[in-house]
Here is the input.
Amino acid sequence: MKIINSVIMGVFGLVSAAYATRKKILKKMYMSEIFPISLMLSGIFILTSCSSLSGDATGNKRSGSVESLATGARLMLRDDWQIQTSSGQPEGVTISKVGFNANGWYPTVIPASVSGVLAKEGVYPDPFFSTNLREWPGMGRGGMRGARRSGGTPQNNPFSVGWWFRTEFDLPAEMAGQSIMLHFEGINYRADVWLNGARIADSNQVEGAMRRFAFDITKDVRPGERNAIALLIHGQGPQDLGHTWVDWAPMPPDKMQGLWRDVFVTASGTLRMHDPFVRSRISDDLTSADLTVSMDIENTSDKPLTGTVDVILDGVVTTIPVSVAGGATRKVSFDGIDHPGLHLKKPRLWWPIGYGSPELYNLHVRVNVNNNISDEQTIRFGVREVTSEITSDGYRLYYINHHPILIRGAGWARNLFFMETAKREEQEIRLVREMGLNAVRFEGKIGSDHLLDLADENGIFVLPGFCCCDYWEQWGSWNDATKTLAVACLRDQLLLLRNHPSTLMFWYASDKFAPPEIEREYLKVIDETQWPNPTVASAGSYTTEAGPTGVKMRGPYDYEPPVYWYGDKDGAAFGFSTEIGTGKTLPSVEDMRKMLGDEHLWPPDSAWTQHSQGGEYTPFTYFDDAIRGRYGEANDVNDYVRKAQLIAYDNERALYEAYGRNKYKSTGVIKWMLNNAWPMLAWHLYDYYLEAGSGYYGTKKSLEPIHVQYSYDDQSVVVVNSTLAPSASLTIRASVINIDASQQWSKSAVIDLPPDGVVRAFTIPELDSLSKTYFVSLTIEDKAGVIISRNFYWLSTVKDELDWAARKWYITPTSVHGDFTALTNLPPVTLDTKTAFDHDGADELAVVTLTNPASSIAFFVRLRVLQKPDGSEILPSMWSDNYVSLLPGETRTLTARWRSDDAPDAIPTVVVDGWNVVRK
Here is the structure.
């Protein structure tokens, strides 16, 4: 979304007249700012460019014609690219010249991979639909992985050669005499780089998916004229530190060959600033904070230069002199202990979801030579401090601003081709925020700058790190060049991430751990980059030279019953689980049809396998056994999916509830996964099409700020507070109800709930009068009698039993399933439904009141908002609650929200159905 940031730099009104002149230039440049809607809504206006900021939040200009480019700002080269195979093409000296005839080349924007562009252009069949991806050259015809995930590219397909990426752009005439840099934030994997007919770097210099490259192009670029860039990008090989999808998506045949992060141009004077950084130290009582601001200053001339560096925060200017020898780079640092302008009283702290507001600051840094601005950047940062410790039980516990925090997150998957849009990222972050997760994990595929900015703004931690199961962890095969490259990749990623307050930590290995000689080099870089957060040697449970990791990665990755999470083995709720999940997650039938078409919708076939996860847990064996054992054999795809939705809700809720109840014996959990890189039947809380299914709402239920829950191990009723505020005089109510809706037991209690606390209110006794399938209904009422949390469970007198003797690394099989087959016999219920539509800013609302007039329970009621009667669902749309159950006579009011521009022409219609609910 484009807005006019006409108030830019207003906070710096106290500075010099020379800077006021510069401010006018900035204001002019910002007139075409691309600004995330979430920033507009929160009133946060980002001032200038910094390597820690996304292009959309920095006054960056898109490729094409520009009138001016302020010192330090980024000219973003995202639009108007073309790609083509190198086969049959001329040399780079020709392709990189302005006016080159690119007819027949494929248009794209950045980020882009070769296979993604060809998919978008329809060169090959839609890879996301059915089994089409198998038909692409270079893909295997069966299974999930398709192209070999770490092997070389076969010679009989178009991805065995390099591909050209080219664009043209105008550079303002006023940049003449400036030092001009060309930046590449992510190239996979090697590239020859050309500008205006001259090669400025070759593939020996440009190597590594997680490197960031910057080239001084002052001699070759033409201010005031059209310029052309061309890259010949070569794909990764089997012994490259590139990108892989491991087992959570098929490997595209080009292996993500292309530009996977931003490309941009910057300009400066003779003193150039690199990687400015702000670090916070917060007093124990949170009443003050000291900032340390540091940066590298490079002298691009061959003569010594003397100047000043200004740091401007909340209108206060702090200045220090600086001298840099010719051709040298010097580190400059400001500290709040010595400089009052960097000592904050009553700082606005950055807090994650549940703990407070994610407050953000803007700090401007300016380098001056001879009373002229040589370089300037703005850093957006949060005043917060992240630490961790190993508890007495050996578990890693994180602290934010001196408060412990239970990390409850999920694994983030980028788009299969790394070709996300800003809008899609905003939609997904909103889904995460509305669900209540406080963290997402990036394993290897670190999100875009825009995505990181969104995490900052929404109080969502990110947990980045290197990937598992590929050359990143094959240390025994590394040569000296590989080791040097790995260390450089780590350095670049730490510099990229360190200003983002959302960054919790960095895992510098995943499933395994690096040998001592590699780890020592990693630790040296971590120290040199002043990394402000904890680092961990592995996502698995190991002890290295850096000490114990304090985390675990013991599975499961396939179906487990809810009681599993309340145990004391493997992935159960103790310690910090870096990735656990229950595998298969069925989308709605509507979305399965989008994915598979009618031909492969039912019965399950190899197309289902193609869209499952890879590895030993690809088959549906254990999942099908759970459906049959718990709910009975599925009659058709509709019956299969509705039973699968029961499993998803039941299990995701139990997972997060168990970790919540057991804090801080449990210290963190990352559900594998949050989302999917392409349409899948596994590993998601919302599906590829952004539909929030039952697992999403089971998770959302478990993550309520104040939440009442049932314990599968000891039948206790527990209240969990996920905020830092106490709550007094809460009334907890519980009812046990038979399948015929008759109440068999009830109890209430009044409790006081401490901050971040857990209170066991009471225990449900063993009852002899229960039907084989029965229900537990729980509520919390505040002092005014308003229900602030409610929960509803379906339980069985037949208890789930786990077969630990048959345990495998990815599953502990269930030998006895709870019996819920009586749910099939619930009488049909027709709900009374009232619907109203409204607006709330950029949102559309549907407010639905449901009343159950029947004498039977209305079970597992699903609500959707359609574009029009009998149309498709508006996606994403987020309900205050969904997949709810109503007791006889009960009334509930639920609200759905969606962005107006996600369905601009909709005539919204609410559809209500459910397990035994007649559709209305």
